Amino acid sequence: MKKIYALYCRAEIVAVSCAFFAIIVLTFGNAVLRIFNHPIVANDDICTLLFAWVSFMGADIAMRSNRLVGMDLVTMNLPVKLQKLLQLIIYILMILVLGMLILKGSQLARMNWARFFNSLPISYGWVTISLPVCGLQMILTLVIKIVVLLSHFRDDQSTIKSHDPDNARKEAEG
């Protein structure tokens, strides 16, 4: 299961990296083409689609490596057990908020499914469905973080660094 999850994490990073690179290339290329009065008509729509997915999938990657939400300044002087308890509460609150976003994002995707891009023959629902899909990815990340936190709750070690399989492998090798 850990190998499948590591493969999933790596695939997510590759997908986000490729999509982000595509946004950069398309935006720069379109700027150059506008100089010659030959812009790519569908460029804005393609970038909108990619940006929605990159933003939310990137948030999952950032969350997995503890680069999304942090309260170190507030909690670093508290006892370790209290730090972990607060971290657990924050994770649960994040799951609740993500649950609402998934619910409302699903409704928004259903409403937008009949709407099409101006220049592409695909549904705008593919943009709005990124919220519930990536919300589920983030909930998976949070559930794993909660399991790791609870399994180390009695340890005197401070907050858990990351559960990113690539980072864990690099830390073990280094």
Descriptive overview:
The protein is 74% helix and 0% strand. Helix 2 packs parallel to helix 6 and helix 4 (80-112) packs antiparallel against helix 6. The longest helix is centred in the N-terminal third of the chain and has 34 residues, at 2-35. The chain has helices at residues 2-35, 43-64, 72-75, 80-112, 125-128, 130-151, 165-173. The protein is elongated. 18% of the residues are buried.
Number of DSSP strands?
Answer: 0
Rg from alpha-carbon coordinates: 20 Å
- Per DSSP, what share of the residues sits in E-state strands of 2 or more residues? under 5%
List unreliable stretches of 5+ residues. none
The sequence of SSEs as H and E is HHHHHHH
How does the major sheet shape up?
none
Number of helices: 7
Which overall shape is indicated by the principal axes computed on the Cα atoms?
elongated
